[in-house]
Amino acid sequence: MKWLRRRRNELPWEVVGCETVQPVFMFDWADELDIVRVRRMRVCGKYIFDFKKHVPSGAQCARAVLFAQQQLFEEITKEDYNIMLLEGWTFTRLRQGNHHRIEIDYTGCPGYVSGKLPTARPPPFIAVLEGRHMLS
After folding, report:
1. Could you report the per-residue pLDDT of 43-74, keeping only the tens digit for each?
2. Angstrom distance (rounded) from CA 105 to CA 124
3. Residue 35 pLDDT > 60
């Protein structure tokens, strides 16, 4: 068995902060969706963003979560789904010396809706990140 080793001079990544939004329904019953099918298992994607020269701002963090949502939606459309019924995310801030990293785990439950699709909605509780200055 091989053990994972880091180089002698390489610093480990330190977790600076973490925010989690458990998957929530993105639509209410008033939307009257004609749901044809729902995937039995949730889908998830992990997205990593590196910042080598500066600490990411709250707006940059919110845009990264929005990007993760869009990327996961592109993945589910390849499987012939057209809507995310449940969405949630975990946002982790990491630091290694002067370098900063954002890791986003975005999860959702895809479905297929017939008829007119509702307008796209931003990730749930994104305002948690928008007004914050990320710690250095």
Report:
1. 999 999 999 888 888 889 999 999 999 999 99
2. 14
3. yes
55 and 101 in contact (C-beta within 8 Å)? no
Query: What span, in angstroms and rounded, lies between the C-alpha atoms of 83 and 75?
Result: 11
How far apart CA 95 and CA 81 sit, in angstroms, is: 37
**Res 136: pLDDT:** 37
Quick one: tokens of 103? 């890791």
115: left (phi > 0), else alpha (psi -120 to 50), else beta? left
**Whether 100 contacts 56, CB under 8 Å:** yes
CA pair distance 62, 13, nearest whole angstrom:
22
Residue 126 and residue 58 in contact, taking contact as beta carbons nearer than 8 Å:
no
Find out whether 93 and 14 touch, Cβ atoms under 8 Å: no
